[in-house]
Amino acid sequence: MADIDLSSSISNDDLPSRSK
């Protein structure tokens, strides 16, 4: 399930709000 968290992180990178 932790793998999903990693994938989510990449998707969040698309958002400037979650960029940093």
From TrEMBL:
<feature type="region of interest" description="Disordered">
    <location>
        <begin position="1"/>
        <end position="20"/>
    </location>
</feature>
<feature type="compositionally biased region" description="Low complexity">
    <location>
        <begin position="1"/>
        <end position="14"/>
    </location>
</feature>
<protein>
    <submittedName>
        <fullName>Uncharacterized protein</fullName>
    </submittedName>
</protein>
